[in-house]
Specification:
This protein is α+β, with helices and mostly antiparallel strands. The chain has one domain: M1 Pyruvate Kinase, Domain 3 (Beta Barrel). It contains three helices and eight strands; from the N terminus they run βββαβββααββ. The protein has a five-stranded mixed sheet with strand order 4-3-7-6-5. A three-stranded antiparallel sheet has the order 2-1-8, with no helix packed on it.
Length: 129
């Protein structure tokens, strides 16, 4: 995954330039979120210091919110509205991409799959805009 300073969210379609843009009507994974706190916990438990959160292949890294509480709810970030649809369930690939044991530690904490409800830009915190 390539880290970006901003992404363009397209309602009902996905993220401009993403491999899942226009994947299928009603696709519940138009955008995915992952908690920075979970990443930090995994690094500590698995003694990892050389990998970024990008290895989890989620679109947006968040901090300060329990993403599981957003399943079934609408929410807004930087003027873009989303509907939380489901957990991004971890798979065996996490053990290969991050470290052995990551899949088990991510159970019920793999991130959030969401639908995009209006067009807009998301920017890394601190970016002008």
């Amino acid at each position: 995954m390539i880290e970006q300073a901003e992404i363009r969210c397209l309602a009902g379609r996905g993220i401009e330039g993403d491999r899942f843009l226009n994947y299928k009507p009603g696709y519940k994974g138009q955008i995915t979120f992952f908690q920075l706190e979970i990443y930090e916990q995994l690094c500590e438990k698995l003694l990892i210091s050389d990998k970024t959160p990008a290895v989890f292949r989620r679109n947006v890294i968040t901090a300060g919110v329990d993403l599981n509480t957003l399943i079934g709810r609408e929410f807004e970030i930087q003027g873009v509205r989303f509907r939380g649809e489901a957990e991004c369930a971890p798979c065996y690939w996490m053990d290969q991409a991050f470290a052995p044991g990551a899949e088990a530690l991510l159970k019920n904490r793999g991130g959030l799959r969401a639908m995009i409800l209006n067009d807009g830009l998301l920017r890394v915190s601190g970016q002008p805009g």
